[in-house]
Amino acid sequence: MQFPESLFVIALLIVLSAFFSLAELSLAASRRLRLRQIAVDGDMRADRVLKLQEMPGDYFTVVQVGQNAVAILGGIVGEGALSPSLTRLFTLWLPVATAETVGFVCSFFIITSLFILFSDLFPKRLGMAEPERWAVRVLTPMAWCMRIFKPVVWLYAKTADLVFKLLGIQTTRDERITSEDILAMTEAGARAGVLAVREQQVIANVFELDSRTVGSAMTQRERIAFFLRDDPDDVIRARIAEEPFSTYPVCDGDIDHVVGYVDAKDLFQRVLNNQTLSLTDDNLVHKVLIVPDRLTLAEVLEQFRQVHEDFAVIVNEYSLVVGVVTLNDVMSTVMGDLVGPDDEEQIVRRDENSWLIDGVTPIEDVLRALHLDELPHDDEYETLAGFLMVMLRRVPRRTDSVNFGGYKFEVLDVDSYRIDQVMVSRLQDPDAAPPASTVG
């Protein structure tokens, strides 16, 4: 074979090898959701690609047969095409034996480099960029190859199936999409600019509803505005003016004996009609939903749906009221800082290295704001105040602090044993501080 003919054959083999590499990677990297969308848009080849992904054995067997055959032929043709020419060139300066060795090495290096660059790296990068587009394009020629090499494919496929069966290895791909998969895709979309960062955070918050307990979103016991059943008209009016809310629990004697709730709209309607406000009227007081404090936010949402309510009283295992929660509280947890006035923010960034955080802030929000993966003993608390109590092993006092993960958590304000405000500061030299330490 003449030198020009050899070069033509080498180029042809490189193209064939590139085709098989592109076919292999495009099928493996194609996203099923994207392929379904292409099929919906009218390209039926995407449906065939989806079926191939379910049973890709024959497809990949053809790819491997083609790649290995081309690689062997490329080595044979390349060595025969370049080695003699390079040997004659090097004999001008080197002895014949040395020239033959150097010519063979150079020929091997050149052929290998061409195959690596143009039949492996280039097509695979091309396939990774747009796998679905190339998967549907190479489908037809690959289908012809599968027909032509069907006997060989059958032999290798059966042999491979037997080996996998003997080893007990699963050969079908698990196509289940988990919440972690969806979050990973949305995070990638946010980094690529396809999805807004706040939109991605809303999606992440939705999946957190199954792991966050109702305590992370409820109004704490000491902040609940409630009425007693026997409160007179003037007390009710004063309480509404002082603490305006949409819903108020109605109690018998104290807050731990909730008998129902009253809607502020009903009270306002009676005020506008110049009627006396009395909570002994059963038409005014509605039956209240009572839920345990161990429920997740997703479970609370389901309870709201079942009873067609948007307000619930939270009790602990001793039947003591620990808080109240509304549908708006749960949705605010999902929407994050997309809704709500600024003066209600629980985490306020003061500057680049410090934050002012409310003690009742859910620990998940604290981790997110500080870009931390976890805090120690995270199964023992749900709020920042709980973290400080666990680390200090007592009720914190003003100026108490805890160092962890390169941050200093300092208590600024305590009201009746409740931690109101915590200053979180980034340590200038986090490596100098121990992983976790407390300062009284």
From TrEMBL:
Major localization class: membrane
InterPro entries documented for this protein: CBS_dom, CBS_dom_sf, CNNM, FAD-bd_PCMH-like_sf, FAD-bd_PCMH_sub2, Ion_transp-like_CBS, Transptr-assoc_dom
Entry GO MF terms: flavin adenine dinucleotide binding
Keyword Transmembrane helix: yes
Membrane topology field: Multi-pass membrane protein
Domain CNNM transmembrane: 1-199
A Pfam family assignment: CBS
PANTHER family per the UniProt record, alphabetical: HEMOLYSIN-RELATED, POLYAMINE EXPORT PROTEIN
Protein name, per record: Polyamine export protein
Organism for this UniProt entry: Diaphorobacter ruginosibacter
Taxonomy of the source species: Bacteria, Pseudomonadati, Pseudomonadota, Betaproteobacteria, Burkholderiales
